[in-house]
Amino acid sequence: MDENQRSSRPASSQCHSPPASPWRNMVEYFKKLIKNSISQKVGEWVKDYCKRNGLLTLSVLAVISGCVVGFTLRSLDLSTQAKIYFSFPGELLMRMLKMLILPLITSSLMSGLSAMDTKASGRLGLLTITYYLWTTFVAVIVGIVLVLIIHPGTGTEKEGHKAAGGPVMTSADALLDLIRNMIPSNLIEATFQQYKTELVPNFKNSAKSSQANFVYIMPDHDNPKMGHPVFLELTPPPEIHYKIVPGKSNGMNVLGIVIFSATMGLLLGRMGSRGLPLVNVCLCVNECVMKIINAAMWYFPFGIVFLVAGKILDMHDPAVLAEKLGMYFITVLAGLFVHGVILLPMFFFLITRKNPFSYIRGLLQALVIALATSSSSATLPITMKCLLENCHVDRKIARFVLPVGATINMDGTALYEAVAAIFIAQVNEYELDFGQLVTIR
C-alpha cells in the first residue's frame, strides 16, 4: 500500500500543474492586446493605402509589366497581325480616353467660365497664357543649353540622319494654320479634323529645247578601225513649283473647340438666368464624364500592360537606335529632368510657398498614364480627376486651365525640337551662330 501510494504521488503531481501566477496572465493578456492592435492597425493601413494609392500602385506595376512583356515577346518575332491583336486592349484604352476629351473640354469650359465674371476670367486667361509661354520659353532654353554642353551630334554618323525629300512648310504657313484652327469653319468637322496647308507639286517643262550636248564614237566589233558617232542629248529636268492648297489632317481640332467653348461660357455667364438651362446641362455632362472616368480607371492598369508592350513590339532594333541616337536620348531626358523635376517645382515653390512634391504626389496617377500614352489630350480626363480630388484645386480654375494647357502648353515638345534642330546641325558639322540660336528659340 505504501509503495503504491508513493508511486502514485509523482504521477498525480505530474498531471496537475501548479496554477499560473497573476503576473503571467497579465503578460499574456498584454501580448494578445498588442498583437491584436498591431494587426488591426496594419489592416487599417493596408486598407487605407489600397483606397488612396491602389490604382497608382497597379498602374506603376502595369508599366513595369508592360516593359518586361514587350521586351520578352520581341524575341518571338511576331507577325504584324499578331502584334495588332496583342495590342488591342491597349488600343481600347486610348480610344476610351480620347472618347472623353470632347465632352470634358466643352462641359468644363462652358460651366467653369459661366460662373466667373468677365474681369476675373480675363485676368485668369492672361495669367494662364503668360505662365504657359514662360514655361515653354524656359524649356527651350534648357534644351539649347544642354545640347550645346553635351554635343550629342559630334561623332555621329550621317547615314542614319538623312533628311526626307520634299517641300518644307514655312513658318508663316504654320502660323496661319494655327490661326485658322482657332476659328474652325465647321464645328462638327472640328471634332475629327484639323486644317492643314498642303504643298502640291506642279511640274512645268523647260522652255529650252533639247540639244546635242555630247558626241562620242562607239567602237564597232566587226570593224575595230571604224566607229559609229553617237549623239547624246540631255533633256533638262522639269521645273517644279509647289502650289499652296487647303487640306485636312485627321485629329480633333482641340484649339478650335477650346476657343468656341470658352466664348460660349463667357457669354452664358453674361446672359444670367436665360443661360442657366444650358449651364445646368453642361454641369450634368461634366459630372457624368467624371463618373465615367471613375469607373474606367479600373481598366487602366490592364490596358497599360498591352499598350506599353505593343509600343515596345513596334520599335525598331533598340540596340541600333541606342547606338545612333543614344546621346540625343540622353540630352533630351536630361533636359526633361531639369525642367520637370527642378525648375517647375522651383516655380511652384516661389509662387505658392508650398511643398511642390506633396502636390506632385497627388498627380502621380496622371503622370503614369501620360508616360504610357504619350498624349497630353488623352491624359486630360485623369489629370482633371487628380487635380479635383487629390490636389483640391478650385473647379472653376481647373476647368479653364487644363483644357487650354493640354492644347498649347507643350514644354517637352518645344524642348526636344530645339535639341533636334541643333543636333542635326552638329551631325552635319554646321556651326550655328548666336543669331541662328535665337531663331531656333
TrEMBL record:
One GO MF term attached to the UniProt entry: neutral L-amino acid transmembrane transporter activity
Transmembrane segments: 55-76, 96-116, 128-150, 252-271, 292-313, 325-351
Region spans: Disordered: 1-20
Top-rank taxon, per record: Eukaryota
InterPro entries for this protein: DAACS, Na-dicarboxylate_symporter, Na-dicarboxylate_symporter_CS, Na:dicarbo_symporter_sf
GO cellular component, one term: plasma membrane
A Pfam match: SDF
UniProt keyword list: Glycoprotein, Membrane, Symport, Transmembrane, Transmembrane helix, Transport
UniProt-listed SUPFAM superfamilies: Proton glutamate symport protein (SSF118215)
Membrane topology recorded in Swiss-Prot or TrEMBL: Multi-pass membrane protein
PROSITE patterns: NA_DICARBOXYL_SYMP_1, NA_DICARBOXYL_SYMP_2
PANTHER family, per database record: AMINO ACID TRANSPORTER (PTHR11958:SF102), SODIUM/DICARBOXYLATE SYMPORTER-RELATED (PTHR11958)
Family as reported in the entry's similarity comment: Belongs to the dicarboxylate/amino acid:cation symporter (DAACS) (TC 2.A.23) family.
Name of the protein in its database record: Amino acid transporter
Species of provenance: Triplophysa rosa
